[in-house]
Every structure is written in C-alpha cells, then in structure tokens.
Amino acid sequence: MPGEKRVKAVRQGVVGRGAGSHLAAGAPTSASAAIGRPEAEEDSRNLVNSLAKGLRVLEAFTAERPELTLSEVAGLAKIDPGTAFRMLNTLVMAGYIARVPDSKRFRLTLKVTDLGFHAIARADLRELARPILRSLVGEVNEAASLGVLDGADILYVERVRAGLTRIGVDIRIGTTIPAFWSTIGEAMLAFLPPAELERVLALKPRPGSFPHKPMKRDEIDDSLRNVRECGYSLRDSYFGSGLRVLAMPVLDVDNYPLASVSVAVPQIQMSSKEFREHALGAVQRAAADIARAIQASGSVSVAV
Question: pTM of the entire structure?
C-alpha cells in the first residue's frame, strides 16, 4: 500500500537522523558537533553538560550499531564508564533505551522516534480529525474531543463544542489529564499491549489542578477489562464536573490505539442508557473514520 510505504520511509528517515546516522555523513547537527561551534562556545555558561552527554549516548546508536554494551557507549559518546552507566540507566527509566534480554547490551526504543513525530504527526492528526469531530458534534449536539497518550497522561489535541455552550470542566487543546482517571484515556489504555500498559501505569502523571479519585490497581484492571469487552468506555467523570463521557479508541489495522475520541453530556441531561443509545453509533463511526484517514494519509501513531 502506498501509504504504508511512505510511513516506512518516514520512519527510517527519522530513526536514521535521531539515532545518529548524520554523524557518519559529517553533518554538524549532533549535540557534540553543536558544542564545537563558536557560538556554542560563546554561550558555554548556558550549556547543560549532562544533557549534552545524554544526547551523545543516544547518538551512539545507529542503524549499523543498533545494540551496544556499556563500554561501547562510553567510547562512542566520549564519556567515562561511570557516567555512561548513569546515563543509560536514566534513559532506560525514561523509556528511550531498553536492555537487550539475556545480554549486557542496550538498544534504542521507538520512543526516540516520537520526539520527531510529535510535532509533525499531531499537527497532521488535528487536521485529519477536525472535520470528523465537527460532524460528530453536529450529529450528537455535544462536545467532542480527541486525545493521545503522552506518558501517563492523555493529551487533548483537538476539541469541538456545539455552539458556544461550555459544559463542565474547561478542557482545552493541550490539556493533560491522568489517563487512568479519564474516560478518554481509559479507552486507549484498555487496548494497549500488556507490556506497554504496565509501562504506562508505572509512570507518574503530571501534577495538575484536576482533582482525582484514588484507584487501586485491581479497580483499574477491572475497569479496563470491561472496556475491552464492550469496545468503549462510558462513565461519569471522576473530576467532579457533572459530566457523563463516552469514549472510543481509534485503532489501527493491528488494533493498536492511536488515539481516542470522546463526547460528553451533563449528567442531568441524559441517563447512561439514553446517552449510549444517543451517541454510541456516532462515536463508533467517528473513530473508524479517523482511523481510515490516518491510514490513507500514511500518518503514524502519536502515542508515547
């Protein structure tokens, strides 16, 4: 499929640049090359040496060197083994590097490519989803949102309201909410591969002004199991906003959640049953339309 070929080419290009292939070409775009420039020397007081070393660790991995030992990383990044050990462990904890099982080697994870994809893919995703969300709002006459996973949080990348009506909590583009406390986040988490779900749930959500309902792990697991069984999430908001929210994941051809679309209504306006009957079909069509638009455009996943 042409779109799939284009995605593969884009991924290879970004991985090559992000993993340090530009070093072999001699282009002065790496962290180490930037440090050697005269203007960088003039601003040395503003340089964070540890960050520069961490970037050199990432750049040590290339398509020709996908797996490296600690000593190899230290040599390529021109840092001592102790610093390399701390850098590698930090990057492993942050999800950018993984340990190769049954070995003493390390490799980059696909999270590295997200650094480049976020700015491009999210902008593309908004453009693809906006007309679909507008149609959804016109059909159900409620507020509609699109969110993606960003660490332990859901990041709202698009939101459309019916008219000038403002309901409940003030959600705007760029707002982040802990994923497992939000309906729109729950719809994505339920369809993550088990290992990725564990990684996300182990992360700490951003501090924020939203109140939350403390949840035990077994409560989270039960809730996600219910979402997987029915294919959507429907519940009253945990944020004290008086809203009832229905969310559906945007799945790719492998049933991986790329995003999540939701609609919300005041609890006093409709019962859960009425809301489901009113909005479920429209939300299902919107999620499927967004998935098809992403596939046709060759866009990639923007989840973290």
Answer: 0.57
